[in-house]
Amino acid sequence: MAEPPLFILDNQIARVLQYRDLIPRLEEALAKFSTRDPAEVIQPVRTTLPLQKFKGYLGLMPSYMENDGVLCTKFVCFYNREKGSELPTVQATVVLLDPEIGSVKAVMEGNVITCMRTAAVSAISAKLLMSPQAEVMAILGTGQQALSHYNVFTEMFSFKEVRVWGHRKQGMEKFRNSVTGPVSVCDSAETAVRGADVIVTVTTSSEPVLFGRWVKQGAHVAAVGACHPNWRELDDVLMAEAVVYADSREGAVTESGDILLSGAQVFAELGEIINGRKPALREKTTVFKSLGMGLQDAVSAKLVFDQWKASQVV
Fold it and tell me: Listing from the earlier edge strand, what are the strands of the sheet with 184-185?
């Protein structure tokens, strides 16, 4: 008989999930995904259901890793909120199942997992694509994703300066008070990104907030927001000038407004770099378009499940 499912809350997940454990597992999973071996990963593109009344969508993100015995799906609601709204832009629940029996092993609040695995994959993109001499990081956005990106990037890399910009002064001040290290609050997006070596866009904008004329040659951009075909954060100039990478080609050409509306082509997946099948063009201006994958949630949920079970052993 199957054991009763665990219910694990965000604050409990935050106590056991660490970037040092998560990142190598995500690197391995990205490499497996890019082999397109169904024994390693089966993952369809995210299915979305419009929530028209609330300007949002429900996304369903299943994945199955046969060789690893991991079956998982995430339910995620994401919204295009009005400026100044106090309502969350993303809410998620992750369900881990037993692939043999079909029973639920664990139900997890998904906001910490979503923030941490997204930021971790962005950091992997920077590890692969940013200049080894990178000194300045800029973050556009001040929400939970901005905070998780600040945390993992400053844990993995040494920057001389980290800048942040957001639409609201209140949001920027809250961000500054939330981080444990130094950060420079900027009065405009342009001021934040001029001369930056690494730029992370984690906004809720549906129109471009980052323009190619601001971006220095050879900079690396991790574009995390705009996860809908009609939304975008980056302008046509930047998309035309940059070499574009993605976590999933299928996801990018189905869901990314930055790619679809600009007509840009995906040069490679991160997993293809890890597998040695495509080069990491560090000397070029690069864009990593992050859409997020159910695989990333599955790997994170399995890690949380194992560590939570281990922590409960007396």
Answer: 184-185, 161-165, 136-140, 198-201, 220-223, 286-289, 243-246, 266-269
Q: What CA–CA distance (Å, rounded) separates 184 from 128?
A: 26
How does DSSP classify residue 213?
Answer: G
Above 60 in pLDDT, residue 314?
no
9: left (phi over 0), alpha (psi -120 to 50) or beta: beta
Cross-strand pairs, 78: 57, 90
| CA atoms of 128 and 226, how far apart (whole Å) | 23
Q: pTM of the predicted model, to two decimals?
A: 0.95
Question: Residues near 154 by Cβ (< 8 Å), separated by ≥ 6?
Answer: 162, 181
The per-residue pLDDT for 104 is 97
Reported as a single tens digit per residue, the pLDDT across 121-139 is 999 999 999 999 999 999 9
Neighbours of 88 (CB within 10 A): 14
Q: Output the average pLDDT for the chain.
A: 95
Q: CA 308, CA 172: separation in Å to the nearest integer?
A: 34
Cα angle: 161, vertex 291, 264; to 5 degrees? 90
Give the number of other CB atoms < 10 A from CB of residue 211: 15
Q: List residues bridging with 90 in a β-sheet.
A: 78
Q: Tell me the C-alpha distance between 294 and 314, whole Å.
A: 32
